[in-house]
Amino acid sequence: MSPTAAQEPTEAAAEYLMTIRYMRGEGQPVIAARLAERLGVSAATVSEMVTRLVREGLLSVEPETRQLNLTDGGRTAAERTFRRHALSEWLLTEVIGLGWADADEEAHHLQNALSDRVTDRIDDLLGRPPTCPHGNPIPRDGQTPERPAGLQLSDATAGSDVTILRVTEEAEEDARLLTFLQQNGVRPGHIFEVVDVATHIGTMTMRRIAGGADDGHEVTIGLVAAAKLRMLEGRAEQSLFHRVPDRARLAATG
C-alpha cells in the first residue's frame, strides 16, 4: 500500500524512509545495523520499524544480503517528506532568520505537519528552489533536478579555487558542524581559495574570495568534515545556486 495525502507515514516512519533515501543517495549499503548506527537507536528498534515498513509496503528486504530498499511507495513518501523539510529550511533560514542548525531541527517538526496545499504555496513563494539551503536536490512529482555530482572538498589541493556545491545529508546531521559552516560562510555558491592542506594533522585552510565584505576571511576545517562537503573546481556559475526572491522576505515583514 502506498501513502496518500490522507495517509502519510508517522513522524518516526518518515525519518527512517528519509534516512534510507539519504544513505542510498550517498552510495552506502543500507542494512539494519548501519541504519541503527546512523539513527542512533538500538538494533531491536530498527528491526521493529523495518518489519512495520515492510508490512505497509514502503520497504523491502533482500533475502540474501539483508539490504533495505525503498519500494515505489516508500520512495514517494521519502521524497514528499524531504521536499517539505527542504522548503521549511528555506523558509526558516532565509525568511524568518533562524540559523542552519535550529532550522534543521524545526524543519523535522514541520515536515510532518504541512499540507500539500501549504507546501505548494511555500514553494511558489520561495521561487521553487531546486535544492535545499545546503545544496541537496529537491524532488518534485517524482523528478529530481539534475545537479553536478561534485568532488569531496577534502580532495582540493593547495592553491586552487573551489566553489562549495553542497553539504551532504550526513553533514547536516551534525548540528555543531552546520553552525560552524554557516558562521564561516561555507555554503553553496561561495568561492574559496585553498590556502593549505595539512594532511599530517588532518586539516585544510581556505580563504573566502569573491565574497564582498567577507573577502579574505579564512577558515580551517578538518579533512574528515571536509569529506562530507562537495565542491566544484574553480569559480562555478552562480546561476547554479538558488537565491530566495525579495518578495518572500517582503511578505515576512509585511
Which short descriptors sum up this protein?
single chain, 254 residues, Arc Repressor Mutant, subunit A, two-stranded antiparallel ribbon, 8 strands, disordered N terminus
Helix count? 10
pLDDT below 50 for ≥5 consecutive residues: which ranges? 1-6
Distance between the termini: 44 Å
**Shape field:** globular
CATH architecture tag of the domain at 151-239: Roll
Number of strands: 8
Please write the string of helix (H) and strand (E) elements.
HHHEEHHHEEHHEEEHEH
CATH class of the domain at 151-239: Mainly Beta
Note the main sheet: 6 strands, antiparallel
Strand order of the largest sheet: 3-8-4-5-6-7
Output mean pLDDT: 89
Question: What's the Cα radius of gyration?
Answer: 19 Å
Counting helices, strands and paired strands, the structural category is: alpha+beta
Q: In CATH, what is the homologous superfamily of the domain at 151-239?
A: Ferrous iron transport protein A (FeoA)
Helix percentage range: 40-55%
Give the DSSP E fraction (strand runs of 2 or more residues): 15-25%
CATH topology of the domain at 151-239: SH3 type barrels
